Predict the 3D structure of the following.
Amino acid sequence: PAPRPGPPISRPPEPPRAGPVPSVPGEPHVVPPAADLRGEDSNVSAAGGLGGAPLLFERLACEEVQEVRTYARLIDMQNRRLAELERVHDDLENRLEQSTRERLRLEAEGEAAAG
């Protein structure tokens, strides 16, 4: 069947159902949910599900990791920008102080010469 557009709709997991006797002693046999019987992809396999579809919790974990990485990159970029703005601020503050000292010196020279 063709994949449906849009995000997948998560369903609560169905409890395992009793089935025929397992073919390997000691391993339980679980009947797949009804969706599997209709041929839809399932989230049953620990190795990524049937048909290569990842498990819901694996997709969510992967999405959360990507989201955390995205936020980490944003924070890193903002920290770099903040550091640059602090350097610019310090430079401007130093220039203003230097300019003020020079102006005060010139005023004092002007008053001394006039007075």
Summary: The radius of gyration is 34 Å. The first helix runs from residue 34 to 37.
